[in-house]
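Students often ask why inverse folding is considered easier than folding. One informal answer: many sequences map to the same fold, so there is more than one right answer. In these notes we will look at a single instance of the problem. The structure comes first.
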């Protein structure tokens, strides 16, 4: 009499497979990594969600200001002295400035230059600092010593004071010139962070294994060292972006940054500072826009730092 295997129809499919002599299928395990874990933490972090939402909104405002206002500060009839310093109303939410220009329209359009300066400066600083820091940390020796001593010269000069001196000699300021000046003074910070991160990673086991397998220096640098060393740079760059926007506003406020007929929040604050007691709305709205922008980028940077730093988990 042959044995008969009876399978309970309500039993799980894994049990039926085991009864039939087959191994139950295992669910694929999630591959953990620094970046995947960080992304998961960021999605659950309300500070990052709020900051990223504000940043996305500000980027859309700077890219397509026409979606948020029908007027243009560059139109021939954009300003009317008859409207000078009028208070906010239902039709004109932010009121008018001393020249009779709509403050809301100018605030929206000023986002472009202010944010472009921040993004362009951060991009230049990150590229220059990462490349030089990667080179100094990986090669070491005399090259590392020369680059390290060279960066110490820049650390001896306060960024804002150095920017004021350079822009005063530069003459007429614009978005590109302000970005280049801020980048020239800001890259040493990224250089030192990248150099230290490369030195800490270049003796790890995966680098030794890659060398043993015959990988060249270029492949090891960009395939193994760079992805593992760039995390702290991303954190500092995200926070610094807001700082550079504030620095541009400070230079423009002092009259050595972005110059008319261009507009920026710093210029608006500078023009309104003399009339603050008479018409505080002219200063408060662009100042609030600047503060919210800087705060949004700092919130994103802080959240990214917490997600990428294993010690804070």
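Output (designed amino acids):
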């Amino acid at each position: 009499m042959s044995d008969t295997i009876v399978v309970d129809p309500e039993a799980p499919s894994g049990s039926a497979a085991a009864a039939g002599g087959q191994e139950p299928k295992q669910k694929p395990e999630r591959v953990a990594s620094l970046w995947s874990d960080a992304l998961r933490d960021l999605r659950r972090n309300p500070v990052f969600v709020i900051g990223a939402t504000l940043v996305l909104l500000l980027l859309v405002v700077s890219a397509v200001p026409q979606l948020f206002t029908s007027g243009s500060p560059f139109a021939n009839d954009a300003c009317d002295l008859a409207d000078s310093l009028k208070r906010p109303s239902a039709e004109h939410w932010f009121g008018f400035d001393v020249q009779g220009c709509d403050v809301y329209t100018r605030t929206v359009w000023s986002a472009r230059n202010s944010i472009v300066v921040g993004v362009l400066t951060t991009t230049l600083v990150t590229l220059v600092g990462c490349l030089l820091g990667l080179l100094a940390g990986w090669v070491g020796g005399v090259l590392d010593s020369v680059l390290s001593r060279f960066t110490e010269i820049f650390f001896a000069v306060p960024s804002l004071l150095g920017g004021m001196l350079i822009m005063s000699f530069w003459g007429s300021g614009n978005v590109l010139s302000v970005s280049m000046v801020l980048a020239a003074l800001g890259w040493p910070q990224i250089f030192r962070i990248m150099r230290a991160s490369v030195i800490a990673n270049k003796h790890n086991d995966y680098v030794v294994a890659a060398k043993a397998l015959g990988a060249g220096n270029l492949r090891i640098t960009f395939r193994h060292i760079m992805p593992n060393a760039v995390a702290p740079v991303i954190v500092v760059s995200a926070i610094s972006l807001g700082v550079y926007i504030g620095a541009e506003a400070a230079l423009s406020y002092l009259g050595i940054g972005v110059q008319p007929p261009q507009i920026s929040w710093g210029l608006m604050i500078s023009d309104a500072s003399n009339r603050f007691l008479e018409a505080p709305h002219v200063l408060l709205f662009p100042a609030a826009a600047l503060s919210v922008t800087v705060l949004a980028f700092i919130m994103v940077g802080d959240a990214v730092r917490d997600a990428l730093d294993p010690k804070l988990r």
